[in-house]
Design brief:
Length: 354
């Protein structure tokens, strides 16, 4: 019985400390654990990742040849682009293509002219694809609104969420004293971290805050200035990108996870916190209510005093309701990579006629 070859584009492994980088890592790991009698998987990866997912899968390296001269490269029975901005495409124009779209946040973040050009590029990829998958109902609605799907099948497959655990991880040196509030995500305007600085002014002195994530941005510099101007350097720390071990320590020792983001295709940190039984405070924007359901406390607006009051009241309510943590943990478990890849494999087989 012939096995069908499936190429999975994991080029974003080159940016591991990003959402797409982590998606590529976790998706590749989950696929590599499968034992599919009809499918042979090949991962398109940076050269440094050759062999990283074991011997059950094969590897092809990202290269200028693969990017600019795909017709000269090896062909496959099926191609899966796991994000919408990949620079790589199948060798054969007839090869079935599954395209995964994570979000259209760039429509709200980019200069309008740049957004138009990016939409044109994305539309061309949608035109080429046989099936489109998205990571949330919110992204599905955005795709339907802004792109011409040409009656193509559109499937919602939620992300998996994996919390890497560590035995007795050490306390990071940068952790401030006090009851710890934790927020993680690239420090950019869309993540809305400035609201947390303003909120902390209205919280008791016992509370401290870590805002973790890449801080190479103008927004991050503005955030630092806000913290200095408010004389909150002893209570708010921006450590930058942190390790999985440090993240695990912060998640297991924090009083709550704070997630005031404006734009999320999915939003992983709230589910990570729920997995560990921690209360989550989040915005009501984009996909966040869809993913978190009734298991988060929501900020319906960002007035600092309101946010602080909502946080204090929410913590009291969380502490008084003994089953709330258990229900949040159960909710988080539906977002597994096993479920995620199972759904994708069903699409692969559909496209291959298996």
């Amino acid at each position: 019985m012939r096995k069908h070859s499936v190429l999975i584009d994991l080029d974003r492994l080159k940016d591991l400390n990003t959402g797409l980088g982590q998606f590529a890592l976790q998706f590749g790991t989950a696929i590599s654990l499968l034992d599919e009698s009809r499918l042979n998987f090949t991962f398109l990866v940076p050269e440094s990742y050759n062999g990283s997912f074991g011997s059950r899968v094969q590897y092809e390296n990202i290269s200028l040849k693969r990017r600019y001269f795909p017709s000269l490269c090896r062909s496959y029975d099926l191609w899966h682009s796991i994000h919408q901005d990949s620079a790589f495409s199948p060798s054969n124009s007839l090869t079935p293509l599954l395209l995964t779209i994570h979000d259209l946040n760039f429509l709200f973040e980019k200069d309008p002219g740049k957004a138009v050009q990016r939409m044109k590029r994305l539309q061309s990829r949608v035109d080429r694809a046989n099936i489109i998958s998205v990571i949330s109902e919110f992204t599905r609605d955005s795709v339907i609104k802004h792109l011409n799907l040409l009656n193509k099948k559109l499937v919602v497959i939620h992300n998996g969420v994996e919390v890497r655990e560590f035995v007795s991880p050490p306390r990071p040196q940068y952790v401030p004293n006090g009851e710890l509030l934790f927020s993680i995500g690239v420090v950019q305007e869309k993540k809305n971290q400035k609201t947390l600085v303003e909120m902390l002014k209205h919280l008791p002195e016992k509370f401290s805050l870590i805002i973790a994530g890449n801080k190479n941005s103008i927004y991050a510099e503005e955030l630092k200035k806000m913290i200095r101007a408010a004389n909150l350097e002893h209570r708010i720390v921006l450590p930058g990108t942190i390790t999985d071990e440090e993240k695990y320590w912060c998640l297991t020792h924090c009083r709550a996870l704070l997630f005031p983001s404006k734009f999320e295709g999915f939003g992983i940190p709230p589910i990570e916190a729920m997995r560990l039984g921690k209360p989550v405070f989040a915005s009501t924007l984009s996909s966040i209510p869809e993913v978190c359901g009734e298991h988060a406390f929501y900020w319906k607006q960002f007035e600092p005093d309101y946010m602080a009051t909502r946080l204090i009241d929410g913590l009291k309510h969380y502490d008084s309701e003994s089953l709330r943590a258990e229900r949040a943990i159960d909710h988080s478990l539906q977002y597994s990579w096993g479920n995620n890849v199972k759904n994708y494999v069903q699409i692969y087989k559909h496209l291959l006629g298996l």
